[in-house]
Amino acid sequence: MGEWFSRxxxxxxxxxxxxxxxAFIAGFLFIRFSVRxxxxxxxxxxxxxxxxxxxxxxxxxxxxxxxxxxxxxxxxEEDSSAWAAGAAALFGVGTALVLDEFALVLHxxxxxxxxxxxxSVEVVFITIALCGLLLLGLRPLGADEVAGDGxxxxxxxxxxxxxxxxxxxxxxxxxxxxxxxxxGVLAIVGAVRLARPGSPWARRRYAKGSRKERRAxxxxxxxxxxxxxxxxxxxxxVAGRPSRR
Length: 245
Known about the structure:
Layout: H1 2-10, H2 15-39, H3 58-75, H4 82-99, H5 102-107, H6 118-135, H7 151-170, H8 174-180, H9 184-192, H10 200-205, H11 211-239
């Protein structure tokens, strides 16, 4: 294990990313455990931070950690030092705290335990997936695969990969589009398949009552909705079930 870590992480220049990744997951799991204990009103858990009766959301602490870890990381010259690893870990914890309340920041109201709050968990899962791909050595837009070719080949490959990923995102396929930045075939599949109903692409290009709109809605009911229900169950297991109102 130690030999693998030295070869694949430390020697490959991924130590800071590894520390960020581990700290991000640990920070997210801790804060979700904390808020679930507070929600359950467990007596032995400290509870919310409320100086003077004002509830301080953990996104505030996350911003402080990100600033300290980010600026500290920029000030450290040695990438493989313990200080660099610590700064990356602090930045990871701060990022986890911020993204855990992403929906709250987006809506500018406390939607943490509502259905809208599921967005925060989805953003965290996407971040974990993208960081994991980076940690495995994959690079966005397939730049590594074409690095040995001419500049025009590189430019074409990068532009093509970016375009199909953007099309997939416009079609409402967030996971496919973002992961497609690293695995190009996913973006191509997402770009050529039907758009999700309600996506920018569908609103612009699928006329009301058209065959494409009907097919898109049928695919949504048949494939997407069962997948979303499964994702919601996983999210509830990890992060807690939203309140029913």
